[in-house]
């Protein structure tokens, strides 16, 4: 399929990228469309270096435009005739430098290929996701089949043991009868002895067969335990780690409980079979008895497998968390937190009989206060699992000199120190006893709410990168995060807070902020220090968390509806709004004001100074957009915001959120009248250079200042659209004071 045909069949989100690409006038979309077949057949790359070829291609292009113009004349399409004549005149201006035109067309074709490549990659990811889900379902079905097969084999083993006991009883009866009768007939004696010998041989073979089947059964059990403990449980723990930092992963344990319990039941039945063999050997044995020789090894192996299964079955189902925290695993001293443990081997007879106790690690000394022991029970679980739900625990740091800050000489900040909370219990059933212990994921313990933001950053980083659930020294040598993994984690933050994550375009804009312009961000890495070290205003996490808090508290509905583009720098904003119809605006987060959102619109290229929680706590953002006004000539107020980018009528986008009362009856009338009406010549917003940008601003040359004041006097390529404008301190040109909010800047 031709490249242009493929582009026209793209989903709406990608057609929007195509629309943005052809917003420039260098290659009009009409020309690209009507001459698509011819354009794609030419060697534009070679023409960028070959003046003769470029000249020929330019002449043929002009001839094709003449042909297309004739068609429009025949079809009486006046507007298209006018446009084609205008395009031809513009292309004729390249006759002195046709290679430049060839370079432009080649650039457009390459950008189109990038869009198609992105679509292909997304489709591959979707197919991979579907394939992974299919594989997971297939693996579960395979496991279910193996569990069912194991259950059948245990039932067969039970029947075999019963048959063995019947055979032994038959032999015992005939042997006792033979001894009591004591016949003198030698021939009869010999016949009876022959019968007894045949029975004992048969019994011996039966014992050997059962022992061999028991070994095979334990082989199957060992394989299942390996699958459950080393794969299914590890996968679940990784999913739980990710879910703690916002991933929408399934962490339900009900299916896992069925599998663990099924295997445990089989092993306890195996212990019963071995006990029955002991009874049979106690009643009757003989030289070279296979049970005496092999049973001890079977007993040891069964005990070992059961112990492994039980020790792995005790888990922390709900990680420690505070009711009002940013997320789990951040705990504050003297503030209550909760946690829930669960044993995946569920025996109803153990309900309320196993007591779980809580204790802390020894890294920094803390006393655990509150209800520190709880019985595992089925009443506190919605699904009927065996759980111990600790709801009223608190931590208090010991002040005694024997405590010390830690066991390591490595200096870590409080929010980089990781701790483990341990849970202990004793499993006892049918004479089998084993001590069980599990622990939480690493937690950060703070003493002040001001540390919570930095502590949550540590939890994000640790659970994103570390799969060692007991690595409390993770921050002693902190690894960098690959961009794909980091981007996924960022999206989870918005998804968990608002039920809408970040799309590819938003993530690309964030990547551009962190790394500058790159062909491919997948090989880029984000360091811990760049993400959060020091918790300073320059920290990426401080900036992003400010946006998250604002979106969650004040903008959740608008964000969930996809009305906020959000992550757009000023140069990209200018590129997107260029050539859009009058009144088109977009919403973006401030790059320099923590927790700020603003909007820019087409007409005179205004942007409003960011609105923060101070404003949004007084009036919803959709009401700001609805009531925002500037004073045009003769002080006539007008709302310049007409179409949400790319072309959605404002009321269609935000109307369902509007309050019913308007005008003087609006509950926000005081704010509207005092802060949402601006004279055209109003205070300009001032920005300091953003320290998080990947490159510093260019020097403020006279030529650049002239361009900013009179852009129409310069050619379109004076400043490339994808090059960020430097943040100029415009206050040096304005004598009026800067407003607290709502000021306008050019």
UniProtKB/TrEMBL annotation:
Residue stretches making up the SH2 domain: 559-680
Superkingdom classification of source: Eukaryota
Coiled coil regions in record: 140-167
Gene Ontology biological-process annotations: immune response; signal transduction
Stored InterPro entries: p53-like_TF_DNA-bd_sf, SH2, SH2_dom_sf, STAT, STAT_linker, STAT_N_sf, STAT_TF_alpha, STAT_TF_CC
Molecular function GO labels: DNA binding; DNA-binding transcription factor activity
Compartments in which it is found: Cytoplasm; Nucleus
Gene Ontology CC annotations of this record: cytoplasm; nucleus
Protein keywords: Activator, Coiled coil, Cytoplasm, DNA-binding, Nucleus, Phosphoprotein, SH2 domain, Transcription, Transcription regulation
SUPFAM superfamilies in the cross-refs: p53-like transcription factors (SSF49417), SH2 domain (SSF55550), STAT (SSF47655), Transcription factor STAT-4 N-domain (SSF48092)
Family: Belongs to the transcription factor STAT family.
Protein name according to UniProt: Signal transducer and activator of transcription
Species this protein is from: Oryzias latipes (Japanese rice fish)
């Amino acid at each position: 399929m031709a490249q242009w045909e493929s582009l026209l069949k793209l989903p709406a989100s990608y057609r929007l990228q195509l629309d943005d690409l052809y917003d420039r006038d260098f290659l009009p979309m009409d020309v690209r469309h009507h001459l698509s077949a011819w354009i794609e057949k030419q060697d534009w790359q070679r023409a960028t270096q070959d003046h003769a070829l470029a000249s020929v291609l330019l002449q043929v292009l002009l001839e094709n435009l003449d042909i297309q113009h004739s068609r429009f004349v025949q079809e009486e399409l006046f507007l298209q005739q006018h446009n084609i004549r205008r395009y031809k005149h513009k292309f004729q201006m390249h006759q002195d430098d046709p290679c430049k035109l060839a370079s432009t067309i080649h650039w457009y074709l390459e950008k189109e290929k990038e869009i198609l490549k992105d679509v292909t990659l997304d489709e591959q990811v979707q197919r991979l996701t579907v394939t992974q889900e299919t594989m997971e379902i297939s693996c579960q079905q395979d496991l279910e089949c193996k569990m069912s097969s194991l259950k059948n084999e245990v039932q067969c083993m039970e029947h075999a043991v019963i048959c063995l006991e019947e055979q032994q009883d038959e032999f015992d009866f005939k042997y006792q009868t033979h001894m009591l009768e004591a016949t003198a007939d030698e021939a009869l004696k010999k016949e009876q002895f022959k019968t007894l010998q045949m029975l004992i041989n048969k019994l011996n073979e039966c014992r050997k067969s059962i022992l061999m089947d028991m070994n095979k059964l334990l082989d199957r059990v060992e394989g299942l335990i390996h699958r459950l403990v080393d794969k299914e449980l590890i996968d679940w723990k990784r999913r739980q780690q990710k879910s703690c930092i916002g991933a929408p992963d399934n962490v339900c344990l009900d299916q896992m409980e069925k599998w663990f319990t099924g295997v445990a039941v089989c092993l306890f039945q195996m212990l019963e079979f071995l006990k029955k063999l002991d009874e049979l050997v106690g009643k009757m044995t003989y030289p070279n008895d296979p049970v005496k020789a092999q049973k001890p090894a079977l007993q040891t192996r069964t005990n070992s497998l059961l112990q492994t299964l039980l020790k792995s079955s005790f888990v922390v189902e709900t990680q420690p968390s505070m009711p009002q925290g940013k997320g789990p695993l951040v705990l504050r001293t003297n503030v209550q937190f909760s946690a829930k443990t669960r044993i995946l081997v569920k025996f109803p007879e153990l309900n309320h009989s196993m007591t779980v106790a809580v204790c802390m690690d020894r890294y920094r000394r803390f006393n655990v206060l509150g209800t520190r022991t709880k019985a595992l029970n089925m009443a506190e679980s919605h699904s009927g699992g065996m759980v111990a739900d600790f709801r009223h625990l608190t931590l208090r740091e010991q002040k005694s000199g024997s405590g010390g800050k830690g066991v390591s000489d490595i200096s870590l900040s409080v929010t980089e120190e990781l701790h483990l909370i341990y849970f202990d219990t004793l499993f006892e059933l049918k004479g089998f006893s084993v001590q069980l212990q599990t622990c939480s994921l690493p937690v950060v313990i703070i003493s002040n709410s001001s540390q919570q933001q930095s502590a949550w950053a540590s939890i994000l980083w640790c659970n994103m990168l570390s799969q060692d659930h007991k690595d409390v020294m993770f921050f002693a040598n902190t690894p960098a995060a690959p961009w794909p993994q980091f981007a996924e984690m960022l999206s989870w933050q918005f998804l968990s807070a608002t039920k809408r994550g970040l799309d590819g375009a938003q993530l690309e804009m964030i990547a551009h902020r962190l790394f500058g312009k790159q062909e491919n961000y997948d090989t880029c890495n984000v360091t811990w220090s760049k993400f959060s070290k020091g918790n300073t205003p320059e920290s990426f996490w401080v900036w992003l968390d400010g946006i998250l808090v604002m979106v969650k508290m004040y903008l959740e509905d608008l964000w969930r509806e996809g009305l906020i583009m959000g992550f757009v720098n000023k140069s990209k904003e200018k590129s997107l709004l260029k050539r859009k119809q009058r009144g088109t605006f977009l919403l973006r987060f401030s790059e320099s004001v923590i927790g700020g959102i603003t909007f820019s619109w087409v007409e005179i290229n205004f942007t409003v100074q960011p609105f923060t929680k101070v404003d949004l706590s007084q009036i919803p953002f959709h009401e700001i957009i609805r009531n925002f006004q500037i004073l045009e000539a003769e002080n006539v107020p007008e709302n310049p915001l007409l179409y949400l980018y790319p072309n959605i009528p404002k009321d269609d986008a935000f109307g369902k959120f509007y309050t019913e009362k308007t005008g003087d009856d609006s509950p926000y009338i005081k704010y509207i009248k005092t802060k949402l009406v601006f004279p055209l010549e109003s205070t300009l917003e001032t920005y300091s250079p953003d320290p998080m940008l990947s490159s510093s601003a260019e020097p403020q040359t006279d030529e650049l200042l002239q361009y900013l004041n009179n852009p129409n006097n310069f050619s379109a390529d004076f400043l490339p659209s994808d090059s960020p404008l430097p943040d100029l301190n415009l206050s040096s040109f304005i004598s009026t004071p800067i407003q607290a909010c709502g000021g306008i800047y050019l």
